Structure formats: C-alpha cells, structure tokens
Amino acid sequence: MDRKLRGRGVAASWYGIARTATIDRAGAWAELDDGGTAKIVTGVTEIGEGILTLLAQVAADELGIKPSQVTIGDNDTARSPEAAHAGATRQTYMIGNSVALASREAKKALFEQIADHWGVEIDTLRSFDGEVWAEGTNLRMSMEEAVATCKARGVVPVGSASFTAHGTGLDPVDGSGSPWQAYVFGTQVAEVEVDTYTGEVQVLGIWAVHDVGRAINPRGVEGQIEGGVVQGLGQALMEDYRTEKGHTTTHGFAKYILPTSLDIPQINCTIVEDPDPLSPLGAKGIGEPALVPTAPAIMNAIYDAIGVRMKSLPATPEKILSALRERGANQESGIRQGGA
C-alpha cells in the first residue's frame, strides 16, 4: 500500500425552513422619511450572520433607494414587531419577506399620492436609485421631493406587514404531513489525502453547490457556505466534544482542536437559484444547510481512499490507524482460514 492515498466523496442534503406544523411568522414596519431615506423596524436578531445588511438591501430594492439610505431601527422586542428567533435558517425567509411586504405597502402609500398629484395611473410609477418617475411621460422627481409631496398632502408613507408560513398541520394519528414550507438542497464533493502511516487526513478541496432560492446577497451566501464547510471540516476531523453521565469532560479549548487557516482547503462555491414560489422574494436561505453535507462527503472520501468506513466523528488519526490495523488483521485472518 502506498503511504498517501487520495479519495473523493460526495454527499447531498435537504433542510426544511419555515415551520408549518406550528406556525412560523415575522412582522416589520417600514417608513419613508424626510430626505428620501427609509427606516425599517423589526425584532430581528443580528448574531453575525449579516441579516441587517440583507434587510437593508431588501428594503432598498423594494423602495427604489440605495441601501445606505436605509436604517434598521431599534430591534428591542418591547418596541418592535415580533420576528421570532435567529436560527433554523429562517431569518432571510421569514423576516426578509416581512420587510419586503412592509416596504411595498409604504411605497404604495407614496405612489397613490404621487399618482394623484401628477394625474397619472399608479401602475405607471417606478422608483430606482432615489428617483420616482412615470413611464411614458417626462414627470420625474427625487425620492426626497416625493416624500415631501406625499406629506404635504397629509399622508405619511408607512407600511406594516407580517409574513406567515402556510399552516398545514400534521396528522394527529400518524404524524404525516409537510412540516416545512420550503426546502434548501445542497451537494458537496470532498477530495482528501490520507497518510496511512500516521492516520492524518488532509482535505484538499471542497466543491459546494447549494440551492438558495434567490441570492439576495451573493457574497454573503458564499461566506455562509464557506463558514459552514469550515465547521463541517472541524466536525469531521478535529472537534471531539465528550460527555460523561450528562456532564462535559472537555473543559476547554486547549485540547479541543479547532480548524485554523492552515487546515482550510480551497472551497469552491456554486449558487443555484430556483426561486421559492411561496416567498415574495423568491429567496429561501443558507445557514445550517451549508454544514450538513460536509462531514459525510469527507467520510465518503476517506472510504474511497483507504477502503475503511469510519463510523464515528471525528475521524482522528488514532481512529483511522486503528481501523486500518483491524482491517489488516481481518484480511490476514481470512487468508489463514482460506489456506487451512
């Protein structure tokens, strides 16, 4: 046997978002302010996933202004609409859609006044990059002027909305039904090199393809996928969290190995956009789904390389060497039995 062997593995996954058995919902308020800027209020929780940037992009796109002109207001749930928890890959899908719907309502309030002011049909109005105009005419004004005109007519352009997953419920007898409104699909391929002398595994590359519905922020989606792959690599090969009788016996990070920049392979991301028909934005999400196929793909690649199936995580060098020795012993025993 050669000392270093290479293998490739593939794994596919699906991940449900927006609960339907127990209703998932989120609300938001939107207001076009003086100066042509906008304020969005929702009880969103930003934990580093970039949701505030995404919501600013969503509101800006719906209202026809720049993201820099959107302020995400106080998200204290004592003073803002309920948005529920940050988790389960739901924030883009649930809160993003509620912000989009609230922004559309605020723009409708604005357009109704501007259409009446100009004497045109409301469906001829358009807004983009801080300007409002009527198609087929020379009528045009800045968003700042439009908001001032609207307010001078006694109307503040505000909107509120909630987005709720379609409740289907589950059969009370057998539990059958559709527990999620949308599903995120993904496939990853891993290439590894296994040192059969030391048991060490080096991941040479990961190719990740994920269907996110519609990518509101493609760079953000790529970042989420790359982060999920790094987490999956740590789960597959390094992170060994141990408990005994319900209590952790891994007391610190000194012996809990985490991936570093030297452990990260080339990660190749491909975003598939298949818009979700039940989402006003067409977007679904990416968060936990990026993590799901990584470890299985790596395990399959190890099997392809050395012919040994690792059945517990992480696949540490000690476990791989032990599995190789066990296979060797079984083969030798088989040869002896065959010779007898």
Q: Which helices and strands, and how do they pair?
A:
Blueprint: E1 4-19, E2 25-32, E3 38-41, H1 51-63, E4 70-72, H2 91-118, E5 125-128, E6 131-134, E7 140-142, H3 143-152, E8 158-164, E9 180-195, E10 201-211, H4 218-237, E11 243-244, E12 247-248, E13 266-272, H5 294-306, H6 317-339
How would you describe this structure to a colleague?
This protein has 340 residues and is α+β, with helices and mostly antiparallel strands. It has 2 domains: 4-16 and 180-331, Aldehyde oxidase/xanthine dehydrogenase, molybdopterin binding domain (Aldehyde Oxidoreductase, domain 4), CATH 3.30.365; 21-164, Aldehyde oxidase/xanthine dehydrogenase, molybdopterin binding domain (Aldehyde Oxidoreductase, domain 4, 2-Layer Sandwich). Helix content is 31%, strand content 26%. It is built from 6 helices and 13 strands. The strands form 4 sheets. The protein has a 4-stranded mixed β-sheet with strand order 1-9-10-13. Helix 4 (218-237) packs across helix 5. The longest helix has 28 residues, at 91-118. The protein starts with a strand and ends with a helix. 38% of the residues are buried. The mean pLDDT is 91.
Q: Features of this protein?
A:
four-stranded mixed sheet; 6 helices; 340 residues; Aldehyde Oxidoreductase, domain 4; elongated; alpha+beta; 2 domains; 13 strands
